[in-house]
Amino acid sequence: MDGRSILRALNSAQAAAVEWCDGPELVMAGAGSGKTRVLASKIAYLIAEKKVPPNRILALTFTNKAAAEMLERVKSMVGGDLRGMQVSTFHSYGMRFLFRNASSMASLGYPSNFVIFDRGDCRNAAKKIARHLGLDAKGDDNRSLADRISRAYANCDPATLDPDIEERWRPAYDLYRDELKRQGALDFDDLMMMPLHILLNDRDALESERNRVEWTLVDECQDVNSPQYLLLKTLAGGSGRLMAVGDPDQSIYGWRGADMSLMMGFEDDFRGARVIVLDRNYRSTSNILAAANSVIRNNRERRDKNLWTDSAEGAPVRVTIENSDRDEYAFITDEIERLVLEDGYRYGDISILYRVNALSRGYEQALLERGIPYGIVRGVAFYDRREVKDVLSMLRLSANPRDAASLERIANIPARGLGPKGTARLALYLSKALGEPREIWGGMTANPPLKGKQGEGAAALAKTMLRVAEEESLGSAIDFILYNAGYEEYIRDAFPEDWEDRLQNVREMTSIMPDDGSAAEALAQAALFTDQDSMRFGDSHVSLMTLHAAKGLEFPVVFLAGLEDGIFPSERSLDEPGGLEEERRICYVGMTRAKERLYMSGVTRRVMFGEFRTFNLSRFISELSDSAGAVKIDDRTRLGASGQARVWRIPGKSRSSGWWSS
Ligand code: ATP
Ligand code: MG
């Protein structure tokens, strides 16, 4: 496609956003207005029309899946060779940057084959430190030390990068940093902070990165936190070749330090910036849009937008209130069968969205009983799966003998007589060992640093690590671990029911690891994958996922389930400043995923964590009242059926249940 045809597929405001390439640009627009489409078109336009080499374009998104989709969209527009074009998450960009800048890393005291600690590894490290200092990490706010450290980063001082941490946690914080460094490890936050540190302190590194990245584009920029925003400023501050797109009404990662006021300050931070507003929604029927608008309108902290659509009214948004979760399951599964049999939808058109993973089981079970095929996105890091993590730990340790977290995990898998004490001594030995990994493992095979049975175990471990390090590719290293180092047998014994699935998960690792870059880089990349990234349900499965995982996606049919106060909005959110408004934005994100049919359901009694609990309906349901014409409500609770007026308990106001019956 040439520049012209790229623009022709857009409306005039969208085309203007794509065509203008003379400075920083912010597209601030509502859900389904084509932000992501504009971003992809801009990349295509830069390549096709402005002849920007693909490898000088950096596009940043929030999930690997979104990155993969973006790349596909651009490919379909410009075809050809996009090699070297970086479409990635912030984390993944940071990680690659650090591998490229190995010498800067070395001067900061990190090995070139550093490893990434996932949340579990970090929590373990933090726990040990808290114990060592005799700290009760859980303060009044019941946060873990790892959580505190992570927040301190996300809320750092943008000028100095100083973490925002209370004095009494400072020693723990410092020890934590030292401990990770000692193990040659970085945590997820480091993947943003270290590149910033290097870029801000090393003019050459900054210069060369600015040469590499001519254009920076970022999707979902309402969810950037301070360090991420600072990165954008640092990379694009000079040239102004930056496009950011986002929707403040969809900012849903406040708990991770996302700060939508950053986006609001864009015009001040980037001189000469142009702000473009898109107000036409292409995704949803007008009923769905009206209902979504009537909910989000209740937020105080927002700029009002006037999102409109040319699409048909469509079916009314259906709200169903049931007596119990069982009834809700029956309603949803009946309706799915009806949609498929009578209305011509495919299972793949349908999704069920909920606020928390804990709710997924019920829906899953109900679909299973009806024989409806489904796929579920648990949002679990792929890396967190037991078997994947074991094998990755072996690969990691073989490449970086200082990685004590991995050593602890797999020293005795499969059993080789290495107990906790022996393992601790081994870790100490390895933290001081000098030389290349292969030399270290070779030396340890010949002269294990432990005696007796433990010594035999250490030698056996070292031998395995040496062989893994000598394999030519990650694939063959994984095969070696499975079939020659006894892991297949181990997993069969440990998980007789599902060892085959687990084996499959390990094999899948090779397919998701990038094949460019070094083995250390591929391993680091693996830490950033979640099962969301391998979501490929296609046409044949109903998709189940949390509302957070659904951001940016769209489905012809959406069931937004579990609308009960305490679940959605969540109990915790009600105690936090701005918490309720963030929950409302999450609700808005969920509703605006729907293209043609939107169902919303809540119950008065639900089994949660094994016990029956009674609920008030979510206040978001009562907020639909403003769009009464677009919404149809079935109240099937006994109270409703008896004709008694029901009062929703909504703080500050109470309302009889009659508002929708007209
Ligand atoms: P979200 O806020 O959910 O991220 P978005 O603003 O990124 O949404 P897109 O996903 O880019 O919106 O677009 C929503 C839908 O509208 C997509 O199916 C897209 O193809 C379609 N669309 C956007 N612009 C146009 C257009 N000019 N003509 C036809 N369809 C369009
Ligand atoms: Mg989008």
Ligand species: adenosine-5'-triphosphate, magnesium ion
Report on the biggest sheet: 8 strands, mixed
CATH architectural name of the largest domain: 3-Layer(aba) Sandwich
Number of strands: 18
CATH class of the largest domain: Alpha Beta
CATH superfamily of the largest domain: P-loop containing nucleotide triphosphate hydrolases
* Average residue-wise pLDDT: 87
Q: In the residues, how many domains can be counted?
A: 4
**N- to C-terminal separation?**
52 Å
Total DSSP helices = 29
Remind me, CATH topology of the largest domain? Rossmann fold
Regions with little confidence, pLDDT below 50 for 5+ residues? 641-662
Structural class of the secondary elements? alpha/beta
Rg to the nearest angstrom? 27 Å
Helix content: 40-55%
Name the shape in a single word.
globular
In terms of DSSP E residues, the strand content is: 5-15%
